[in-house]
Amino acid sequence: MITINVTKRLTTAEGSITAHFDLTLRKGEFVTLFGASGAGKTTLLRLIAGLEQPDSGVIDVEGEVWFDSAKKINLSPQQRSIGFVFQDYALFPTMTVRENCLFAAKTQEHRDRIDELIALVELSALAHRLPQTLSGGQKQRVALIRALVRRPQLLLLDEPLSALDPAMRQKLQDELALLHTKLGVTTLLVSHDIAETVKLSHRLASVQKGNIVYCGDPMEFFTPQTLSGKLQLIGEILKIEEDFPSIIVTLLVGSSLVKTVISREEALPLNVGNHAIIATKAFTPTLMPLKG
Amino acid sequence: MESEFISTMVLTFKLASITTAILVVIGIPLAAFLVFSTIRFKSVIETIVSMPLVLPPSVLGFYLLLAFSPASTLGAYLTSHGIRLAFSFEGLVIGSVLFSLPFMVHPIQSALAGVPKSIFEASYTLGKTKITTMFRVILPMIRSGLISGITLAFAHTVGEFGVILMIGGNIPDETRVASIAIYDEVESLNYALAHQYALTLFVVTFSILLLVYTLNKKSLGELR
């Protein structure tokens, strides 16, 4: 059990706010911090890692106190059992893939599992290569396994997939899910991608202006309780067109475009660029395999 | 005459080597301080480090001479402990270190400033101390900045004239370095020897710089 209850004064674009994060993670759980940029997601991750210091509060990891403002306990990042994956990967450019992993190792047991980890993310053939010669997705995999070498109690991922193209993103989401199932490390992911959140996480913590406003099932968060649709798709609104007397909305769902006709009233809360749920109740959908 | 030539050249490169070695030891922490420190008076320290770039060497030499003289507080203290810095090799080392400081610090400083913060943090979250991070991650990364600093500081010390003339004078085997010897030989119309010194300095410094830049380019090429 990991208990986090901290406050921190943040300077945001809209002025200064006092963030209060209250979050509990169960062992082996995958939790996503979801929210707009500037909400404080990355700050929370950095507070947990010890890269920034909370103003007050407690961080307790499996009975070990990492931070306690009342008792003046504040473990350094080096003393905390974490794996941190940065948005820009932060690979050491003078070290090869294997050397990057070896640098993280502390014991012989850590060194012994490096080859296995490298094989797990299919990088065995590239183990002797320097990071500059790798693609974005490959760099991300190296950063991920490097963070796992020391068997951390908590894996912290700061939008690790945001710089990748959609296809690579999907592939890495699958790998991340696989790694999590295999290794069972408690994971906290920062994301603002709905599909990623729903696909990967057991629970979602929605962060808004420095507060966790929702913590629970990801699907329930994105779908209103009143909706009992049989088919629900989440998409991004690309276009809202007038077509008297109704409105035509174009959405991007995955990589396909979907057009739907709605009434003027329904269109009122919708804006281009926002995400929306498209749900249908009347038909039984059929599924067919794609040819080729 | 031949043995005097050799001892002068040896003294010149001994001064440059010792100065460069001292500068490596103090230059890296100083550059790191200038990049990462958040104290208020940082710009004052930055200015002092950069002063030798714009100040005539004679100004620095003059004040060092005053400071080293037994009439000053520092000089009197040193003299009472049996240390004489004016017109001595040790004094030259101190003068050269101060005068070549920006040539060592600036390339390291700009290389360090170019290292992303996340590289440091990644190493810390992997359980490594600041010292380990510096030696195993950061210094290899800023290798070309380090090599530039070492080369520039060394070459600059070999070529230094003003400060050395002011605080060192022209004592054979003690403070008479090649740049002073050239001036001295020309004054005594001994052009052949002056030429011997000048050409040797030219060839040696050219070779060092060429070697270093070639190696540096090669190692950078490997990284890409």
User: What is the average per-residue confidence, as pLDDT of chain A, rounded to a whole number?
Assistant: 88
- Coarse structural class of chain A: alpha/beta
Number of helices of chain A: 8
Continuous helix count of chain B: 11
Strand content of chain A: 25-35%
Global shape of chain A = globular
Low-confidence stretches of chain A: none
Biggest sheet details of chain A: 6 strands, mixed
Radius of gyration of chain A, taken over Cα atoms and rounded to an integer in Å: 22 Å
Topology:
The complex is a heterodimer of chains A (292) and B (224).
Chain A: E1 2-12, E2 15-25, E3 30-34, H1 41-49, E4 56-61, E5 64-68, E6 73-74, E7 82-85, H2 97-104, H3 108-120, H4 136-148, E8 154-158, H5 166-183, E9 186-191, H6 194-200, E10 203-208, E11 211-216, H7 218-222, E12 231-243, E13 246-253, E14 256-262, H8 264-267, E15 275-280
Parallel strand pairs in A: 3-9, 3-10, 7-8, 8-9
Antiparallel strand pairs in A: 1-2, 1-4, 4-5, 5-6, 10-11, 12-13, 12-15, 13-14
Helix pairs in contact in A: 2-3, 2-4
Chain B: H1 2-36, H2 42-54, H3 57-68, H4 73-80, H5 89-113, H6 117-125, H7 130-141, H8 143-159, H9 162-167, H10 178-187, H11 191-223
Helix pairs in contact in B: 1-5, 1-8, 2-5, 5-8, 6-7, 8-11, 10-11
